[in-house]
Write a structure and sequence with these properties.
- InterPro entries: CDP-alcohol_PTase-I, CDP-diaglyc--ser_O-PTrfase, CDP-OH_P_trans, CDP-OH_P_trans_C, CDP-OH_PTrfase_TM_dom, CDP_ALCOHOL_P_TRANSF_CS.
- This protein is mostly helical.
- It has a single domain, classed as Four Helix Bundle (Hemerythrin (Met), subunit A) (Up-down Bundle).
- Helices cover 69% and strands 2% of the residues.
- It has nine helices and two strands; from the N terminus they run H-H-H-H-E-H-H-H-E-H-H.
- The chain has a two-stranded antiparallel sheet with strand order 1-2.
- Helix 8 packs antiparallel against helix 9.
Length: 292
C-alpha cells in the first residue's frame, strides 16, 4: 500500500546507474535535517515574539536559529551525513534565519516608525541576503579561483549580516530609545548592511584557517573562548554590540590583507611568465640551425 508521502531520497531521485535505491535511511542523514528544521522553527518563533513586543526573547530566538543553522552542516560532515536534500534545506533555512527573521524583528522594533522607508529598508536587506546566499552557492562551483582566495568571502556573509543588522536592537536594550528620527537612521544603516552583503568586498573566512592550532596557542584560545562565553551570558547585549562594532572595524583590515595577497599573487604570476619566456628564448637560441 502506498503512503501519502513519497519515499525520502537524500540525494534526489534514484538512478540505477548511480547505485541502488535506499529502502532504509540511516539516522545520520536525518539528524542534520532535523537540526535545520529546528533552526527554521526558532527563526519563525523569533518573528512571532517580535510582533508580540517580546523583543529580547525574539532576538535570542534569532540567535539560537543562527547557531543551529551554523552547526547543522558541521554535524552532517562529522557524522558523514551530508546529502543534496540537506544542502537545499540549509540554503532555505539561511534565507529565513539570516534574511527574513532579522529584517522583521528590526522592523517591528524600530523601522515601523519610519513607515514606508523602514519597510523598504527591511525589504532591501532580506532580498540582499537572498542574493548573497545564491551567489555563495554558485561560487562553490567555481573551479577557477586561486587556492588563497578560498580564505575570503565575497561580501559580508549572511550570518554576520544578521548579527550586524540587529545592532540597533542591541543598543536599544542598553538604553537607546527608539524614535522616529532614529528609525530613519536605522533604515539607512540597514541599507548599508544590505549593500555590504551583495558587495564584492573580500571578508576573511575563518573557516579555512585550518584545523591545526599551534601548541602555544591552545591554552590562550581556550581561555578566550571561555571568557567570551562568560561575557556573552553575563553581559549579553554589551558583548553583542561590541562584537558587531568590532566586526565592522575589521572589514577594512580584511580588504587590506586581500590587496596584499592579490599583489603578491600577481607578482608571482608575472615572475613565472617571465621565467617561462626566458626558458623558451633560451631553448630557441640553443637549437642548431637546419642544414641545407
Amino acid at each position: 500500500m502506498e503512503t501519502p508521502f513519497p519515499p525520502f531520497d537524500p540525494n534526489g531521485s534514484a538512478d540505477i546507474s548511480r547505485g541502488p535505491k535506499l529502502t532504509q535511511i540511516p539516522l545520520r542523514l536525518v539528524i542534520p535535517n532535523l537540526i535545520t528544521v529546528l533552526a527554521i522553527c526558532a527563526g519563525l518563533t523569533g518573528i512571532r515574539l517580535a510582533f508580540e513586543n517580546r523583543f529580547e526573547l525574539a532576538v535570542i530566538m534569532v540567535l539560537v536559529a543562527a547557531f543551529l543553522d551554523g552547526i547543522d552542516g558541521r554535524i552532517a560532515r562529522m557524522m558523514k551525513g551530508s546529502s543534496k536534500f540537506g544542502a537545499q534545506m540549509d540554503s532555505l533555512a539561511d534565507i529565513v534565519n539570516f534574511g527574513v527573521a532579522p529584517a522583521l524583528v528590526l522592523y517591528a522594533y524600530v523601522l515601523d516608525q519610519a513607515r514606508a522607508f523602514g519597510w523598504i529598508a527591511a525589504l532591501l536587506y532580506a532580498i540582499a541576503c537572498c542574493l548573497r546566499l545564491a551567489r555563495f552557492n554558485v561560487m562553490l562551483e567555481d573551479q577557477n579561483r586561486s587556492a588563497w582566495q578560498n580564505d575570503y568571502f565575497v561580501g559580508v556573509p549572511a550570518p554576520a549580516g544578521a548579527m550586524l543588522v540587529l545592532l540597533p536592537v542591541y543598543l536599544g536594550f542598553l538604553g537607546l530609545i527608539p524614535s522616529r528620527p532614529l528609525a530613519f537612521g536605522v533604515a539607512a544603516y540597514t541599507v548599508v548592511i544590505a549593500l555590504l552583503l551583495v558587495s564584492r568586498l573580500p571578508v576573511y573566512n575563518g573557516k579555512t584557517a585550518g584545523n591545526l592550532v599551534h601548541r602555544d596557542m591552545v591554552m590562550p584560545l581556550i581561555l578566550f573562548v571561555v571568557l567570551y562565553a562568560a561575557f556573552l551570558m553575563s553581559y549579553t547585549w554589551y558583548t553583542l554590540s561590541i562584537t558587531a562594532i568590532a566586526y565592522l572595524i575589521f572589514l577594512p583590515f580584511s580588504l587590506a590583507a586581500w590587496n596584499r595577497r592579490e599583489a603578491a599573487d600577481r607578482l608571482a604570476r608575472q615572475t613565472a611568465d617571465e621565467d617561462n619566456r626566458q626558458e623558451e628564448n633560451t631553448s630557441e637560441n640553443s637549437t642548431p640551425p637546419e642544414q641545407g
